[in-house]
C-alpha cells in the first residue's frame, strides 16, 4: 500500500460514484486533484481543480464504469495524471480498473487484488485454509442445473448470491428447487 500523502506525485485523479471525500483528502495533502464523479455535488468543486460529472456526460443508460474509464482518459489527456485513487462503484469492474490503471498507476490495491478479494468463493477458501476461520460451505456454479445440484448437496434452505459483490446486496434465501431456479435466472439478468 502506498502512503499517497508522501508519494512523489503532483496530480491525482479520483474516480468513483462519490469522489468528494477522497478528493478532499488529496487536496488537503497538497495535490492537484481532478475527479471523475457520478453525482457532481456542489461540495466537490471546492476540492478539485477540475471535475467531469458522469451523469452529465454519459448517455442516460450508459454503463457507469465504462463511462468512468472514457472520462478518466479525457481528463488524463487534458491535464496529465501521476496517479489514480479509486472510489466506490468500481469494485466489481476489474476490467475497467485495468483500463484505468493504463492511464496512471492506481494507488492502493491493484485490479487483480481487488478481483481476488471480491471473489467470495476464493476468499472463503483462503480464510478457512490460511486462518482456520469457519465459513459457510460455498459452491460456485455456471448454470441453473449446477445450482440445483449444489443446493441439493448442501441441503435446503441455501443462500444464493452472485460470486462477486458486497455489502449484503443480492443475497437471497432459497427454500426449494423452484426458488433456486427463479433466483438463478434473476441474478443472471444482473439484478
State the gist of this model.
The chain has 191 residues and is of the alpha/beta class. Helix content is 43%, strand content 14%.
Terminal Cα span = 33 Å
Indicate the CATH topology of the largest domain: Rossmann fold
Task: Look at the structure and give the CATH class of the largest domain.
Answer: Alpha Beta
Major sheet characteristics: 4 strands, parallel
Instruction: Please give the share of residues in helix.
Output: 40-55%
- The side-by-side strand order for the widest beta sheet comes to 3-2-1-4
Average pLDDT figure: 89
Strand content: 5-15%
Encode the helix/strand succession as letters. EHEEHHEHHHHEEH
Rg from alpha-carbon coordinates: 20 Å
- How many domain units? 2
Task: State the secondary-structure class.
Answer: alpha/beta
Low-confidence stretches: none
Count all strands and give the number: 6
Shape descriptor reads elongated
Folded structure, characterized:
The chain is of the alpha/beta class. It has two domains: 11-115, Rossmann fold; 119-188, Dna Ligase, domain 1 (2-Layer Sandwich). Helices cover 43% and strands 14% of the residues. The strands form two sheets. A four-stranded parallel β-sheet has the order 3-2-1-4, sandwiched between helices. The chain has a two-stranded antiparallel ribbon with strand order 5-6. Helix 3 (64-79) runs parallel beside helix 4. The longest helix is centred in the middle third of the chain and has 16 residues, at 64-79. It is elongated.
Topology (SSEs and partners):
Blueprint: E1 11-16, H1 20-28, E2 32-37, E3 50-53, H2 54-57, H3 64-79, E4 83-86, H4 94-103, H5 111-118, H6 120-131, H7 144-154, E5 158-160, E6 172-174, H8 177-188
Parallel strand pairs: 1-2, 1-4, 2-3
Antiparallel strand pairs: 5-6
Helix pairs in contact: 3-4, 4-5, 7-8
Amino acid at each position: 500500500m502506498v502512503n499517497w500523502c508522501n508519494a512523489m506525485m503532483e496530480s491525482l485523479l479520483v474516480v468513483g460514484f462519490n469522489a468528494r471525500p477522497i478528493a478532499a483528502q488529496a487536496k488537503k495533502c497538497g495535490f492537484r486533484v481532478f475527479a471523475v464523479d457520478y453525482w457532481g455535488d456542489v461540495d466537490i468543486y471546492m476540492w478539485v481543480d477540475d471535475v467531469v460529472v458522469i451523469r452529465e456526460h454519459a448517455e442516460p443508460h450508459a454503463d457507469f464504469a465504462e463511462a468512468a474509464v472514457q472520462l478518466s482518459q479525457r481528463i488524463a489527456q487534458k491535464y496529465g495524471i501521476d496517479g489514480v485513487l479509486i472510489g466506490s462503484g468500481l469494485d466489481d469492474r476489474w476490467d475497467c480498473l485495468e483500463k484505468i490503471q493504463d492511464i496512471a498507476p492506481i494507488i492502493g490495491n491493484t485490479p487483480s487484488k481487488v478481483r481476488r478479494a471480491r471473489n467470495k468463493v476464493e476468499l472463503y477458501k483462503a480464510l478457512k485454509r490460511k486462518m482456520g476461520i469457519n465459513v459457510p460451505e460455498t459452491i460456485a456454479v455456471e448454470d441453473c442445473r449446477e445450482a440445483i445440484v449444489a443446493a441439493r448437496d448442501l441441503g435446503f434452505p441455501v443462500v444464493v448470491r452472485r460470486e462477486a459483490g458486497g455489502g449484503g446486496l443480492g443475497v437471497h434465501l432459497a427454500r426449494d428447487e423452484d426458488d433456486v431456479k427463479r433466483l438463478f435466472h434473476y441474478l443472471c439478468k444482473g439484478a
